[in-house]
Every structure is written in C-alpha cells, then in structure tokens.
Amino acid sequence: MQFNKETPIYIQIKDVVYNAILSGEYCGGERIPSIRDMAVSLEVNPNTVTRTYAILQEEGVIENQRGLGYFAVENAKDVVLNQMKDEFLTVEVPLFFSKMERLGIPMEKITTLYSEPKKWRKT
Amino acid sequence: MQFNKETPIYIQIKDVVYNAILSGEYCGGERIPSIRDMAVSLEVNPNTVTRTYAILQEEGVIENQRGLGYFAVENAKDVVLNQMKDEFLTVEVPLFFSKMERLGIPMEKITTLYSEPKKWRKT
Amino acid sequence: MQFNKETPIYIQIKDVVYNAILSGEYCGGERIPSIRDMAVSLEVNPNTVTRTYAILQEEGVIENQRGLGYFAVENAKDVVLNQMKDEFLTVEVPLFFSKMERLGIPMEKITTLYSEPKKWRKT
Amino acid sequence: MQFNKETPIYIQIKDVVYNAILSGEYCGGERIPSIRDMAVSLEVNPNTVTRTYAILQEEGVIENQRGLGYFAVENAKDVVLNQMKDEFLTVEVPLFFSKMERLGIPMEKITTLYSEPKKWRKT
DNA sequence: GTGGTCTAGACCACC
DNA sequence: GTGGTCTAGACCACA
Q: What are the tens digits of pLDDT across the range C75-87?
C-alpha cells in the first residue's frame, strides 16, 4: 500500500482499520488480521502495526484475547462513529469556519463546491 | 510567546508573519523586524527565525536587502491571501467534504452550525 | 574532504551528490548514505548535510522514507541532467557570450581553444 | 540603479566602473566621480563605493590624488582589458569547457546558439 | 547594524 | 537505526 509521506504511517494504518470497521468489513466481535498479517499485506514493519493496535485498544475499539489475536469490540462501529463525529463537530468544524472567515470565503462558496462533486471527489 | 508543541515553531512563526501582513501591520514594501529582534520578541533562537524568513522569501512574500534586512514585497497581502485561499479550496475543503461523507453528516448540519456562531466562535 | 572556502559547504555537498548520481554511484530508487554517515565521511556537521538533503528533496532528486533514510528518485539521473543542462544553456551560456563580446573575443578563438584540449583540460 | 541580489554590491559597482572605462566614458588620466557622487547616483551607501574604489586602486586601475579625487590611470583601458581577458581565457573558459563535457553538450550547440543572438542577448 | 553559514549537542517522533 | 527540530554560540561578509 501507498502511504502519504507527511502523516505517520501508524496513523494512516489506524484510518485503514477505522474505514474497515465503518464499511462493515470488520464487524463487532469478529477477529481482525494479526499484526503479522496486517504488516505483510501493508508492506510495513510489524512494529508499526503493533503501535496502531495498541492505540486502537486504548481507544476501546479493539480488544486482545491472549493467544487468539485481536477482535473488534461488540459495538465497534458505533464507538468509532461517535468518536469521530464528536471530534469532527467540536474541533475540526470550528477551525474550518474560522479559517473561512479569515480568508473571506462565504458559506455559499462552500455549498456550491459541495454540490459539484467532480470538483473535490477523487473517485 | 507561547507555541503549540505539536507543530514546528518555524511554521508557527510563519503564521505570525502571515497574520501581521494580512492585518496590515507589515505593509507592502515596508521593513519587517530583523531576525534578531524577532527572535528576542518571540523568545526563540535566531536560527529558527532565519528558517522561517528563508521560507517566506522562497514563497515570494518577503525580500532581503543586503545589510538592511527583510522587507515585505510590494503586494505581500495579495500574495499571502491568494496562496492561502488556493490551498484552502483545493486541499482542505475536499478533505473536509470526504470526512463529512464518511461520517454521514449532511451539508445542512454544517450550514446550520455556521448560522449559530456562538456554537463555534471563540470570541 | 576538503571544501572550497568561498562557496557554502552545503552547496558543495549538493554537487557531491549530483556527481554521484551522474556517475551512477547512486542509482534511481537506491538508498543514499544517511545524514549521519554522510556527515562523518565528509567530516562535516550533520546539520549541514541535513540542509543539503532538504534542498535536494525539494528539487525532486531524492525522497525520504520515514525511518529508513533518503533514496534517489527513480529517474534521478535524468532529473539532475536536465536541470543542469537547462541552467547552463539559459543562464551561463548567455553570460559567457556577453562577456566574450565585451572583451572583443571572437567565437573562433573559443573553438580553437576547444580543439586543443591540453590547453584547458586538467587530466 | 538596480542591483542583482546575489553578488555583492561593491562587486557590481566594480563592473560599472570597468564598463565605463571600456566604453571610453572614463578615459585614461581623467577624473572619475567622487565617492560621494557615485554613491548618490547609484543610491548606495558611500562606504560601499569606498570599498570598490579601494579595490580598483589596488588593481592599479585608478589612482587617488589627495584632495583632488580619483583618476583613471593613463592606460586604464588596456589594464582592464588585459586583466579581464587573461582571467577569462585561463579560468572561465576551461571551466566552461569542462562543464560542457560533463553535460554532454557538443561545441556545435554552442556555436549555433551564438549565431542566433536573439536567443541570448538581452538588448 | 544586517543576514548567512557552520558547529556542537540535545531531544523527539518514527520505523 | 532513521530524519526533524531546536538551542547556543561562533565567525564571516556586507552595508
């Protein structure tokens, strides 16, 4: 897999797991790939995956069962979704608004852009 | 001055200069504080300011006159504004949109929040 | 290594890397010496090499892979060659010509000198 | 007057004087502008002109007559011309040739460029 | 006075 | 191990 050079790889891997959970690929209670497998499939050092899993565990998104591997928690999807939504609405959105104002960009400009997906969507 | 610990100081100083230009404190053609003065007033090592000024010069926002110091370019304000606007609309806005979609937040939610400044404005 | 005192060391290191790339010592995609190793072998402070590598990266000649080191880009040789050629033909050659004219030296004089390598070649 | 930002101003002033001598504006034995006048007309600090004149005097191109000012030496034009020619042919030309070779640029390319003045002449 | 460069040494994040 | 950042302090060229 290709990684962005600016943000740490272990963060980008976190996003990979997040997306897999949100998309339903990893369902609540199910086992997720072992550190080793994940490292191989992403062509990354296992230490890096270890770091990601440790963070996810601390966040309560996955759990470790000794000898069996890592599992998504029962309500993983909700946990992730709520956490991200909350952070987005209370932190990122205000920053976004204040930058808009500083640059003198009106809300209409934003909504217009949004209604023309080809302008911003990669897929 | 207090600096955020996460982003490099020389980047934060860049923003300081940017804001001073946008606010009209440093006008086009005028001299900006010498590296040493700036370093003292920000309580930072001169090398760090040197780095910031080098970047700003490369960006075409300030110029050096040998032995005299650095000067804001004639149309500094426009240069900064356009540069920031461009980066915002082509990089940050698309990221913002795609995160919105991933979290299933509709555009209406955003516009509603925007029309209630008390919810996001600090001042 | 010995450095010319007039031009900055970090520029001279840049030339060292350029030549290593042109000579095929550093091939496209290969890793180049770490900052510390390079600093030791050139008997220079690591900071100085850091500066050189930063410039080369900005020029698109080398890339960084986090935690692994710097790598010559795939087509490094071409990039360097084109860059140098372009700069030579558009900057140095015109300066050369105008100086020739100012000194009243005819082109024939130059071509004659060129055809007698012993007059100018060191080897 | 506009100065190039890269090379020291006192060097550029030296070129100004050189050119004035080569063009016959300052003839052998004649007085050249005082330091003060020169500084005013070039919009430069007098110290800078002082430095230039000191160098020119050391090179034997101008002389100082106490209380009267600076004068171009009798055969100033020859002195300058020979000096520049010599330095050009023994230093710059060899460097030029070796760079040509390193970049794989044939002599024909150079002569072709030379015969198309619009490509390199500013005037 | 100005900036430009370099060294020495330190701390940190990342892999 | 890797590079990225920062500090402290020095020397130099330039105006």
A: 999 999 998 898 8
